[in-house]
Specification:
This protein is 69% helix and 0% strand. It is an all-alpha fold. The chain has a single domain, classed as Arc Repressor Mutant, subunit A, CATH 1.10.10.60. Helix 4 packs parallel to helix 7. The chain starts with 12 loop residues before the first helix and ends with a helix.
């Protein structure tokens, strides 16, 4: 009796496409289209769209938008106080308004408001750290004076 050959553990087409989109450089999003991805993966655009939607329950274009917004969120959280316009430029959006609209479709706040909130939290965190360092310095001074008096 012949043994059946096992299928290769090659990732699904939709997973490979999703990985390709996730690993895209910020300025390369503009060049990501269904047609170009289909050409890259050697399938028809129709087949690629159908398979991707079946596995991810969204279109490739919406997935790209969500990925860009996710990157924008990362940029904002790493750089509190950054403007929406600067984030939009980094992600190759035509203007800040386009980025804000896409961001708002994924999150309950605008990127500007999120940036402001994070900047305020960052400022409070720095102030708290400064107060703690001053208190620790004062305690060390009091302790050293106390040991000198003995």
């Amino acid at each position: 009796m012949k043994r059946k050959s096992k299928k290769s553990k090659k990732p699904r087409l939709s997973d490979r496409v999703a990985a390709r989109i996730r690993n895209c450089k910020n300025k390369d999003y503009e060049r990501l289209t269904v047609e170009k991805l289909a050409e890259e993966f050697e399938v028809t655009p129709e087949h690629l769209s159908r398979v991707f939607h079946r596995d991810y329950y969204t279109t490739i274009q919406k997935f790209i938008i969500h990925e860009k917004v996710r990157r924008g969120f990362e940029i904002i959280t790493k750089s509190p106080g950054i403007t929406s316009k600067k984030v939009a430029e980094k992600l190759d959006y035509s203007d800040g308004g386009s980025f804000t609209k896409a961001f708002k479709s994924c999150f309950p706040v605008t990127p500007a408001k999120l940036s402001r909130i994070l900047a305020e939290q960052d400022k409070k965190r720095k102030e708290r750290k400064k107060r703690m360092e001053e208190a620790a310095k004062k305690n060390r001074k009091v302790e050293s004076e106390g040991s000198e008096n003995r």
